[in-house]
Design goal:
The chain is α/β, with parallel strands linked by helices. Helices cover about 40% and strands about 15% of the residues. β4 (about 145-150), α7 (about 160-170) and β5 form a beta-alpha-beta unit. The N and C termini lie far apart (about 50 Å).
């Protein structure tokens, strides 16, 4: 099936007389005829469900659709994008390990890595996405376990050179993890450029309507963990918490990473979405390709308008000609990058606040990437925990306004922007 058809039909094919839509299996538990049958599930010797804290049929069918869209071999849903990024890293890095990450990642992810996971004994080195090859290579250590970046950074809107970062990661024997939330697999397929694992905040474009918080992890199945058994013992040596199973032996490269994340991390942390939320997510996925086309077209129109406005100091949108990452955007996402535009209003933070207060159609909201246009000042909200130096490294200036362009009529969006700027 082609991409647009996968959005509708991927992950679930009903049999004769079965529900046409993915059914909501709203149950915590599942009945079995014998203890031996259930024991086989606990030993990972049989497939099936026994407790929704680990897996649920509704969630797995939606995860299968996202996996198909990304071109991966296995996937799982989580209760949030934060949980997805945490699981993806913690599945292969633990106390005493090290990870290289792009400095322009979302502020919440930065805090997760630089503060919370640091307290767990995992060190992170943050590098600019524009760093030289030598600077990138110098960031690696003998205990480095992964490289992490965003395909399109939130809110700096820098585009990661996925092929370059994948090569650096593979040269040092570690996988590249890409948060692909902003372009979605409709507009960017990181696995085709060498990435190994993809994460999403499905709360954003995938859900598309601000209905349900969620996340997803997809494995390409291409990274050969068995080449580095000492570096990735959790995947290549027996797991005593699961009766000595070795994930790469039992499930192969195609299934080892996701099975371990489910059997260990979801078991112990339980960050699973409710089946109801997974159902909402699937409704959003069915129109994802249609909505992304509209988001990208509207955002480009807004970016062009802002670029020529006398009260606007600067504009970032990777699909806008003249943007510093325009060439990278054309390489990795030629059909459009996302519906977000970042810009600065002349007059700094005060002018930015006045502009946002003058908007009527657009809502000031701690959210991004859904059907309704919304706006935020990251330096005083999502990134306020960062120092001035960290903000600068993340590409978040004091005057930056993150404008998430919705799918309303673009003339109404532009009229709202024009009125708000006139009041500045």
């Amino acid at each position: 099936m082609n991409r647009d058809t996968v959005c509708i039909h991927g992950g679930y094919t009903p049999e004769n007389g079965e529900p046409r839509n993915i059914p909501i299996v709203q149950s915590t538990t599942f009945r079995y005829a014998t203890g031996e049958a259930m024991g086989a599930l606990f030993d990972l010797e049989a497939s099936g469900y026994f407790y929704t804290r680990l897996q649920n049929p509704t969630n797995d069918r939606v995860a299968a659709k996202i996996t198909q869209l990304e071109g991966g071999t296995a996937g799982m849903l989580t209760s949030s994008g934060q949980a997805a990024n945490f699981y993806a890293v913690f599945n292969i890095a633990s106390c005493g390990d090290h990870v290289v990450a792009s400095s322009t990642i979302y502020g919440g992810t930065f805090n997760l890595f630089a503060v919370t996971m640091k307290r767990m004994g995992i060190d992170f080195t943050f590098v600019s996405p524009d760093c030289s090859d030598d600077e990138l290579a110098a960031a690696f250590r003998p205990n480095t376990k992964a490289v992490f970046g965003e395909s399109v950074a939130n809110p700096a809107l820098s585009v990661l050179d996925i092929e370059r970062f994948a090569k650096a990661a593979h040269d040092h024997g570690v996988p590249l993890i890409i948060d692909n939330t902003f372009p979605t697999p409709v507009h960017c397929r990181p696995f085709e450029f060498g990435a190994d694992i993809v994460t999403h905040s499905t709360t954003k474009y995938m859900d598309g309507h601000a209905n349900a918080v969620g996340g997803a992890i997809v494995d390409s199945g291409k990274f050969d963990w068995t080449k580095y058994p000492d570096k990735f013992p959790g995947l290549c040596t027996p797991d005593e918490s699961y009766h000595g199973v070795t994930y790469t032996e039992r499930f192969g490269l195609a299934g080892a990473f996701i099975t371990k994340a489910t059997a260990q991390l979801m078991r112990d942390f339980g960050s699973i979405p409710s089946p109801q939320n997974a159902y909402y997510l699937n409704i959003g996925l069915e129109t994802l390709s249609l909505r992304m086309a509209r988001h990208c077209a509207n955002a480009l129109a807004v970016a062009k308008y802002l670029k020529n406005h006398p009260k606007v100091a600067w504009v970032r949108h990777p699909s806008l000609e003249g943007d510093p990452d325009y060439a990278l955007a054309q390489k990795y996402m030629p059909e459009g990058c996302c519906g977000v535009v970042s810009f600065g209003v002349k007059g700094g933070r005060a002018a930015a606040s006045k502009f946002m207060a003058g908007l009527e159609l657009a809502s000031i909201a701690t959210h991004v990437a859904d059907a309704k246009t919304c706006v935020l000042h990251p330096a005083s909200t999502t990134h306020r925990q960062m120092s001035d130096a960290e903000l600068e490294a993340a590409g978040v200036s004091p005057d930056l306004v993150r404008f998430s362009v919705g799918i309303e009529d673009v003339e109404d969006i532009l009229a709202d922007v024009e009125k708000a700027l006139a009041a500045v």
